[in-house]
Amino acid sequence: MIDNTNDFIQTIIDQIHEDEKRLSDGEQVSNIALKIPRIDSGEDKRLGLGHKLARQLFPALDAKEIMLPTEVMQQVNDFEEGCATHPQHC
Predict the structure, then answer these.
(1) Are 12 and 53 in contact (CB under 8 A)?
(2) 57-68, pLDDT tens digit by residue?
(3) CB 41 within 8 Å of CB 50
(4) 73: Cβ contacts below 8 Å, ≥ 6 apart
(5) Which residue has the higher pLDDT, 68 or 56?
(6) What distance in Å separates the CA atoms of residue 51 and residue 59, rounded to the nearest whole number?
(7) Which contacts of 53-60 are long-range, i.e. CB under 8 A and separated by 24 or more positions?
């Protein structure tokens, strides 16, 4: 059983960053990527480890940067309308 989830997640993140550095230096890396909790894995379903790890590795910088599907579709529609009236800009 994991006593401190935050310490566990931080240990994984630290190792991933160390592996990134080692990889860029042409050195051998650990096998942690094969063993980390994945989203929807058993550990994730029981303890939320996959989601916690993902949120730490890929944090949303600002809620305003996260677009909802309707906002994305509105931008696509606006672009398509702009292309129809001004095709030289597409």
Answers:
(1) yes
(2) 887 755 555 655
(3) yes
(4) none
(5) 56
(6) 11
(7) 53/9, 53/12, 53/13, 56/9, 56/10, 56/13, 57/13, 57/16
DSSP secondary structure, 28-54, as one string = ---SHHHHS--TTSHHHHHH-HHHHHH
Q: How far apart (Å, rounded) are the C-alpha atoms in residues 37 and 56?
A: 13
Could you give the CA distance from residue 67 to residue 26 in angstroms, rounded to a whole number?
Answer: 38
Q: What angle do CA 9, 11, 12 make, to 5 degrees?
A: 65
pTM of the complete model: 0.58
Confidence of residue 35 (pLDDT cuts 50, 70, 90): confident
